[in-house]
Structure formats: C-alpha cells, structure tokens
Specification:
- Residues 247-282 form the EF-hand domain.
- The chain is mainly alpha-helical.
- The protein folds into three domains: 2-212, no CATH class; 232-376, EF-hand (Recoverin, domain 1), CATH 1.10.238.10; 386-438.
- It is 70% helix and 4% strand.
- It contains 24 helices and four strands.
- The strands form two sheets. A two-stranded antiparallel ribbon has the order 1-2. A two-stranded antiparallel ribbon has the order 3-4.
- It is extended.
- It starts with a helix and ends with a helix.
C-alpha cells in the first residue's frame, strides 16, 4: 500500500483521512442538555439522551484503528509517511491531525465532567456518554503509541511540539477528580473501570515518547513540565495508588485476621476503621476517604475481600506503569530538581514496585544501548528463591569463573536459563496443586432474622408439582420406547421359571405395601 501511494502520489487519500478526522464528532453538552429537557417534558421522540452524542463512535474507532494498523510492527517507513508525504504537491500531517482530534475530545469530556461535578452520581445517560468518549480516546492513544514506537524519533519530535501536552494535562485532571468521585459509589464502578483503562493507555503512550531518547532531551523536559503544571492532579493520582496498594497489606495482616476470626470475609465499618487506625499506614484523611468508598450491606457489614480486590488490582496494574514512567523519566532527567520532588511524593509507590521491576539492556534501533523495564511476578520471585534454583545459580557462577572463553560462558548462560526455567515451571505446577486460591469475596451472607434457607414463595409448591409431573411423564415415555420394550422382553426370555415367579412376587409385594 505504501508503495502504491508513493507511486501514485495520491494526495486525496491523506486529505480524505484528515477531513474524516475533522468531521468525527465529540461530546456535545448543549445537545445533551436539550435532549434531556425534552425527554423530561415528554416530547423526546428520537431516542434517549445517551444516543445523541458521538453517534459515529464506532466509525471513529475504526478510522484510528486503521491508522494504527498501517504502522503495526514498527513500520518506520509508513510512520514517517503519515507525517509528511515527500514528493507530493500537498502534504498532510496525519500525526498532528490525530492530536487535534484528541484535544477536541478531551475538552468535550471536561465539559461533561463539570456538568456532573455538583451531582452526587453520574446517571445512566451520562455514563453512556462518558464510556463512549473513553472508548474512542483509548483507541486514539493506541494509535499515537503505534505512530512513535520503534522508536520513530521524527514522529516523537512532532508530537513533542504539538498540543499533545495540553491534552495530557487535561486528562490528568480528569483522572484525579473523576476517580475521587467514582470510587465512592458502587453504581459508578463500570465507568471507573473504563477510566482506569484509559489512564493505562495514556501512560503507555508517554512511555513510548521516552523510548530511545537521550538524557536531558527535549521530550523529557516537556514531560516534566507537563507533570509540574498538573502537580496537584498527579499527587492525587499517586495518593490513590498508595492507598489502594496498601489494602492488601492491611487485610492480610495477622491483627486484621483476628477481627475476622471465622474467616467469613465480613467486617463491621467500625472494626474496619479501627483496623486501619491500628496499622498506622493511613493518615486520618485517607481513612475517611476509604470509609466513604465502603458500602455496607443491609446489616451494616462490609465485604472487605471484594472491596480490596475492587481497588487493589487496578492500582497494581496501572501503578506499575506509573512507576516505570517515573523511573524512566528520572534516568532521562537525572538533574531536574522538580522531578526529584515528584519522586519523593511517589516514594511509597516506587518502593512497592521496586522488587517487581526488572531491567535489561538491549541494543536499540538507533544502535545505542537502551534500558528496558518489565514486570517480575511475585510468584516468579518466590520460585527464584527456591533451594534448587539457588543451587543452579551457584553452579552457573562457578562455571563462569572457571570457563575461560566467551563461547563457553555464553553456552553456560543458555544452559542455566533453560534449566532454571524448567525447574521453576515444574515447582510452580507442584505448588499450584498443593495450594488453594484465597477467596476473592466473602461467604454468602445470611441476613439476620432469616433461617438457613429463605421461606418458599406461594408459587413454590406449584413449581415442584410441575417438575414432578414432567419427570414422571418423561420416565413413562422412556419405558414405552420400542427399543426399551424389546430389550426387556429379551431379558425376560433369558430368565428361569423360578426367577420369573420371584420377580412377580416382589412386584406384587411392593405394589401392595408401597
């Protein structure tokens, strides 16, 4: 396709793409409010308020997905061609057009946030609109990531000098304040999940912006500038991660388990607050926020396992990428005092992920040594400390010291890796058979005043009678099947006279008494 575009010098393809981007809709708060008022008066006949905004969301996602696939696999030539079409009479910068749409979308989402900021919860039409916009925004960030991965340094520079940072700053505000709002009501959790996924995609895009860059470079400085301008929002986001990451430590502690002595998974709000105060890992403001996120059941009990899973797992997934971003940024900008202050604020999050942060150095596309980060799973760390793995490590280090040539050392390293992987997988399979997964939720709760099973409803006897009648008819039909009758007749022919008389006696006896 690239070769065809170059040969034909097809300007129309790129002008059409830019025109389609410009025509892609974003959220329209005025239209949303008009439609809701019309429906409130009973004159809305064209559908719900949630259907009025971003009616072309599917097409918009498909358009940006198409552009993403053009650059799939670090297609450097196509990445550059989307930015500028050398030899054409007119060039269209598709990369910048993508940023322009992202900024329009972010500003429209911000309008909806302010509309709902004074309301306790976001209603269903509002959630539908937010989710639609977030879905499109996730795809746009995926497309931008593919534009620059590899890295494509010229596209990175184009984005660095665009209004991308304005969009990033706006989204940081939305992430901080909407997470604060949505975390406090269980009816908002589906929207919170979508928002956190968008946050994950944006962080991945920011990591891709740093890929292959030099120390104290322009992009690193601009990223620090953006974080400093949004300092209060970034600190709020880091505070959320810190609070939610500590939940697992809290609920798995021995003192907390003593409160739930029967291991039911239920706890009173008073005991939950007392446990947080005793652990001394939360300040009073954080305790108050976490208590506002809890929703006790009808008997004023909290399912603390579900509560922990609800917030801890997303914080762990996204927090890891935040830790990678800050660590990577600190290596690109080692002498920036503003970044050092951020690292101090994020010290608790960084310390949490430090044991799980793996590092390797590879030769990048620019022929420079680059450091790549990856996640080390907790189960892998446990396996790495097993006695058999330690013995393999000792044997490997001994062979490295004793073997002289590079070829022998490389061979010893490969052998060690193969042996270690096999031993860890084998040990993991054994441990998985021996251990049971801890429950993710509390045991089914029996409401106070209720018996072990709830009383049957008035229709229950009729239902049971219907099922019994159905089973009886089914059994009768199965007995009357020709194949069944033929099989029973053959069985009777094989029986002796005594067996037939005994069978007849038993049939008569049970038929009379039962």
């Amino acid at each position: 396709m690239l070769q065809h575009l170059k040969e034909k010098r097809d300007v129309g393809f790129f002008t059409s793409i830019a025109g389609l981007m410009n025509s892609c809709s974003v959220l329209d708060l005025d239209a949303f409010e008009r439609t809701q008022k019309a429906e409130g008066l009973g004159v809305g006949s064209e559908g719900t308020a949630g259907e009025k905004n971003m009616h072309d969301a599917d097409f918009t996602c498909a358009l940006f997905r198409f552009l993403q696939l053009l650059c799939e696999g670090h297609n450097l030539e196509f990445q550059n061609y989307l930015r500028t079409q050398a030899g054409n009479t007119t060039t269209v910068n598709v990369v910048i057009s993508t940023v322009d749409y992202l900024l329009r979308l972010q500003e429209s989402v911000m309008d909806f946030y302010w509309h709902y900021s004074s309301k306790e919860v976001i209603d269903q039409p509002g959630k539908d609109n937010f989710c639609r916009a977030i879905t499109v925004a996730k795809q746009v960030f995926n497309t931008l990531t593919e534009f620059i991965q590899g890295p494509c340094s010229l596209n990175q520079q184009a984005l660095a000098h665009s209004r991308l940072w304005d969009a990033v700053g706006g989204f940081l505000f939305l992430f901080a304040h909407m997470q604060d709002k949505l975390s406090k009501n269980s009816s908002q959790l589906d929207l919170l999940k979508e928002l956190l996924e968008l946050q994950q995609e944006m962080i991945i895009m920011m990591l891709s912006m740093l890929e292959g860059n030099v120390m104290n470079g322009t992009i690193g400085k601009q990223m620090v500038d953006t974080l400093v301008e949004s300092a209060s929002n970034v600190e709020m986001i880091l505070r959320f991660f810190d609070m939610f990451l500590k939940l697992k430590e809290l609920t798995s502690s021995s003192s907390f388990q003593e409160i739930d002595s029967n291991n039911s998974g239920w706890i009173t709000p008073k005991d939950f607050q007392k446990a947080m105060e005793q652990q001394k890992i939360y300040n009073p403001d954080e305790i108050a926020f976490l208590m506002s996120c809890c929703e006790p059941n009808i008997d004023d009990l909290i399912d603390y396992r579900e509560f922990t899973e609800r917030f801890h797992n997303p914080a762990k997934d996204i927090g890891f990428n935040v830790a990678v971003l800050l660590t990577n940024l600190s290596e690109h900008m080692p002498n920036d005092p503003r970044l050092h202050r951020f690292l101090e604020t994020a010290s608790s999050v960084l310390n949490y992920f430090e044991p799980f942060l793996g590092r390797i150095e590879i030769m990048g596309g620019s022929k420079r040594i680059e450091r790549v980060y990856f996640e080390i799973k907790e189960s892998t760390i446990d396996q790495w400390e097993k006695p058999q793995i330690k013995e393999s490590k000792r044997a490997f280090f001994y062979s490295i010291v004793t073997e002289g040539g590079d070829k022998e050392k490389l061979e010893a390293f490969v052998n060690f890796c193969e042996d270690a992987i096999f031993e860890m997988q084998h040990a993991s399979s054994i441990s998985n058979e021996d251990t049971e997964e801890p429950p993710a939720k509390a045991e089914p709760y029996t409401f106070l005043g209720a018996e072990e099973s709830r009383p049957p409803g008035p229709m229950e006897p009729l239902k049971q009678g219907f099922w019994l009648l159905r089973d009886a008819i089914g059994a009768l039909l199965s007995v009357l099947r020709p194949s069944y009758l033929k099989r029973q007749f053959q069985a009777l022919r094989r029986k002796s006279l005594g067996e037939l008389l005994m069978g007849l006696f038993r049939f008569s006896f049970f038929g009379f008494f039962y």
